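Narrative summary of target 7.
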Amino acid sequence: MSGTRDNVQIGTTQSDPDIWIDVTADGPYVVHGAPPLHTQTIVQNASGNSGSYRQGQAFAVKDGSMLCRCGHSRHKPYCDGSHKTAAVDLAETASFAPLLQGSEEIDGPQVALTDNEDYCAFARFCDNGQRIWNEVQIPGKEHAELAVEMAHHCPGGRLLVWDAQTKQPIEPAVPVALGLIEDPAEGCSGPLTLQGGVRVQSASGRSYEIRNRQALCRCGASSNKPFCDGSHASIKFQDGL
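Modeled conformation, tokenized:
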């Protein structure tokens, strides 16, 4: 499976070009435009797995708002300048290559799956049923639909489900939204999520591939900055929100 045009992943809903994120050198994320920002709490289902998100507190965002990415601000989610004294390496290490270039492909009778593990945000929606990697290979509409649901809940966009016949990603139109992940089951706070094709510009001035779902590190510990790699769970990052 492949598909990136003009640095936009296939199936992506492109946002208003005035809405974008600027990753500053050794500093915060600067939000351009005024997208909505809410806490998004991962809610467990009856099986004890991640089942849905519960939208919570709203935070004011205006053009030029600065959001913490070092994990040390005392005024989260906003930056308070703590990155200047925190011993955190905020250098970007992520690739500018399309996500699909580094993805594994798993084919099934009705749907296929592409998976780039480097962008795992450890939200664990993929563990439902027989886990997404198995569900895509099992015949039956219910298995295909469960795989699609799990992929759409994946905050980092690691997982993409494709129609096996058309070879097109199964992606809905996604409205622009920013989220602050809270994960009670793991006892931690998670990444800053971007939905709806929000452009992320590196401190170098170059833009990363635009995708429907992205998760940006806000704990300061990711090894794939500016993107989340799930490190918030291992360090038990707390934003106090």
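The first helix runs from residue 132 to 135.
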